[in-house]
Design brief:
alpha+beta; ten-stranded mixed sheet; four-stranded antiparallel sheet; 17 helices; elongated
Length: 565
């Protein structure tokens, strides 16, 4: 039984430590590790192909300070629609023959790379029920728009593109009216600060004709956005990892030292039949190390198996490349566990080996004379029954074991409290970031083609807060048909038990000072039930008001906008 306890306790402790170590490694600068692994681009540049030929762009890769380059790749922007004619966000499509390269080695998460026109690989963030391998996208909402079959999903740590296809496919979209640019990817020997990035960009601009460089994307901006997204989870993952490792050390040392300490009487018998102190120590250390070694080996395998789903979740949270247990974790954890087991067994074995034979046999049956007597005398003065005072004083008879148990219980309580608090906190954060989840019913509609001029407007959503539950037949409906939002509103108002509803239209708007488009939500009706958590100000109450995230104000500092929150 003692051997089994040592093996199982060590196995579980090592498995926990492996998982904790793997999560700590994954949480330590996830973007930096992914960017380094993929050799991400410090600068992603767009050039005008009419002003810079492919040969000229290839020469820019030989500029002073450039350590690696890739391209030129044809690039264009388009807004596809899915099989239900639901418009997707605008995507940057790049024509590449494969995922590998000297810069930005895109990692396939599933499927394969696009090999011929009509095939497309999407960024892994788009994977979902409406976009999966084998499904089809239309390049636009036009009737004659080419169809693109999704053959894979990939991740680019540097966010060089939203989708990839063959160069011929990009040229085919160009014939549909989508302007094509030439994308170049660069890595520099000095690109750690904003000033260095600006200097590197100036080199690129000076190496080509005036106006040939259309725009650039800095890896520092991508890193900042990725770090902000992971900032909420990294401290908690690191804390969990530390707690897991500390708990593992406490449990292993407690079990091993307790197992050896309870064998003092047997050690006395061994000495009585001729074992030397050195032989006794070796025997009991080996008695602990052998089952612990088996438990450690099994624990490493179990820890790697348990880490797989957790690391997969971590990938989705951080939006990073494939994660796995670092090799040094599988080496460091077993080595540390063996060291802890050896020390935990060696200390009581050395103490027992130094005892005289008669004393070892006597100690094995009863605590050492005089140990903890002061605690018994102090507790005896309390107005409590003798069994209670005896139980309170007994831990002082074996202070090391009592301390180890106290630490194990304390850290276990901390871990449990931390887990419950973290779960509720992150649930509250998630709910505040998704106010639509509070609605009992969400109806997504698009206007009929004959009610609005082409192109059709983006989707509108009606969020309904109703005291009555949704029927299973409505919740399990198949692909929704195209509906007129006005008719949907009329139907909602006529529904018995309706408490409130509001409409939300999502669209893209241009904002001075920000490159590209900005997602905007326009509300109709009483939208208080769908409001976000406010840091300052108040939610929208009328026309001429807007609520924006704090990062939006940091980037733009608008003065002509009513600052509501």
């Amino acid at each position: 039984m003692q051997t089994l306890v040592i093996a199982v306790a060590t196995m579980m402790a090592v498995a926990s430590a492996v998982v904790a170590g793997a999560l700590m490694v994954a949480a330590a600068a996830p973007f930096d590790h992914a960017f380094k692994k993929q050799q991400g681009a410090h600068i992603t540049a767009q050039f005008d192909p009419a002003k810079a030929t492919a040969a000229q762009l290839a020469e820019t890769g030989k500029l002073a300070g450039v350590t690696a380059s890739a391209g030129p790749y044809p690039s264009t922007a388009f807004r596809p629609v899915d099989e239900t004619d639901f418009p997707l966000p605008s995507l940057t499509l790049v024509g590449r023959s494969g995922p590998d390269g000297d810069v930005d080695r895109v990692e396939l998460k599933s499927g394969r790379w696009a090999q011929k026109p009509g095939e497309i690989v999407l960024d892994a963030s788009f994977e979902g029920p409406s976009a999966e391998i084998g499904s089809t996208l239309k390049a636009s909402d036009a009737a004659d728009a080419p169809k693109l079959s999704i053959v894979g999903f990939a991740v680019s740590a540097g966010k060089s593109a939203d989708a990839w296809a063959t160069a011929a496919q990009v040229d085919a979209l160009a014939s549909q009216g989508n302007p094509v640019t030439s994308q170049m990817l660069y890595r520099f020997d000095s690109a750690d600060t904003k000033e260095q990035i600006l200097a590197d960009r100036a080199k690129l601009a000076a190496s080509v004709k005036s106006g040939a460089l259309l725009g650039t994307q800095s890896w520092l901006d991508t890193k900042r956005a990725a770090d902000q997204g992971a900032a909420a989870t990294v401290p908690f993952v690191m804390a969990f990892g530390v707690l897991g490792i500390v708990m593992s050390v406490i449990i292993v040392s407690s079990v091993i030292s307790g197992a050896v300490g309870t064998s003092l009487r047997r050690i006395g018998i061994l000495k009585a039949i001729g074992f030397t102190p050195r032989e006794v120590v070796r025997a009991y250390v080996a008695q602990a190390l052998i089952p612990a070694g088996v438990g450690i080996a099994v624990g490493v395998v179990l820890g790697n198996l348990l880490a797989v789903p957790l690391l997969a979740d971590t990938e989705s949270v951080y939006g990073t490349v494939s994660l796995s247990v670092a090799w040094w974790v599988d080496v460091a954890v077993p080595a540390a566990a063996l060291l802890v087991v050896g020390l935990a067994a060696l200390i009581p074995a050395l103490r027992a080996g130094r005892l005289r034979t008669v004393e070892a046999i006597a100690v094995g049956r009863a605590p050492r004379t005089g140990r903890g007597q002061w605690a018994h005398r102090a507790m005896g003065r309390l107005p409590l029954p003798r069994p209670v005072t005896y139980g309170l004083a007994t831990p002082f008879t074996h202070p090391v074991r009592a301390l180890a148990m106290l630490l194990a219980v304390a850290f276990g309580t901390v871990a449990a409290t931390f887990a419950v608090g973290l779960t509720s906190s992150l649930s509250a954060v998630g709910a505040s970031q998704d106010p639509e989840s509070r609605a009992a019913v969400t109806v997504t509609t698009v206007k009929l083609d004959d009610l609005a001029p082409p192109p059709p407007p983006p989707p509108a959503e009606e969020d309904v807060a109703s005291p009555s539950p949704v029927s299973s037949s409505a919740a399990g409906a198949s692909t929704p048909k195209v509906a007129d939002p006005a008719k949907v509103r009329a139907a909602l108002k006529s529904e018995a038990g309706l408490a409130s509803y509001y409409g939300r239209l999502q669209t893209e708007v241009a904002v001075a000072g920000i490159s590209g488009s900005v997602q905007a939500s326009l509300y109709e009706g009483d939208s208080r039930s769908g409001s976000y958590e406010m840091l300052s100000g108040h939610w929208i109450t009328g026309k001429g008001q807007v609520v924006v995230p704090s990062r939006f104000l940091e980037r733009t500092s608008p003065r002509s906008v009513t600052r509501c929150g």
